[in-house]
Amino acid sequence: ALLDLSGVHQITGTWMGSTTVPCTYVPAEGFTQHTLSWSLGRDSSVSTIFLRDDSGDHILPAKFRGRVSVPKHSPGDASLLIENLEMPDSGHYTCQVVWRSTDNSLITRELTTTVKVVKVAATKPIIRAAEPGLALPAGASTSLRCEASGSPPISYRWFRSGPAGTAQLLSSGAELAWPSLRPSDSGTYFCEAENR
């Protein structure tokens, strides 16, 4: 059928992680997206959490600000990304899209997905070791990437071994990059991964 929303009935997200609640449609000629909204139903109350209209994107409840978003430049994709999931984010999420047709009539479609936030067993980060020893020519560009499995969120720090067992903190990201290597960059580097 024309302008049908597709998604899933139920989705499970991990506490402190992120999840995308899918809601997509195939854009049809002669119909322009007028408004797009997401509402959350819990117990007996329903509240609008996201609204996109002519004036832009509006995130209504303060507790969702900075945590929810909808793709900006992909026509037909109305999916809701929720980051840093909290236990009370569980509930029934309804995607509602209203289109305006060339004769100015409005068409509305809705799709509801149940989101369940679960706590996974907390696990310590485990770093996958890279190949030891890397020989590169001066002037080359390279990067070291630290990857750990474990309960999110995981933060990373890169250090470089200094004299007499000291360590110098280089970056607080998963990747350490050199646009152009110098001989003085030779040394031993190590990564630390940390979660709660």
Automatic annotation (TrEMBL):
One BP annotation, GO: negative regulation of macrophage activation
MF terms (GO), sorted A to Z: complement component C3b binding
Domain Ig-like span(s) in chain numbering: 17-112, 125-196
InterPro entries named among the record's database cross-references: Ig-like_dom, Ig-like_dom_sf, Ig-like_fold, Ig_sub, Ig_sub2, Ig_V-set, VSIG4
Segments forming a coiled coil: none
Pfam families: Ig_3, V-set
PANTHER family in the cross-refs: V-SET AND IMMUNOGLOBULIN DOMAIN CONTAINING 4, V-SET AND IMMUNOGLOBULIN DOMAIN-CONTAINING PROTEIN 4
Identification of the protein by name: VSIG4 protein
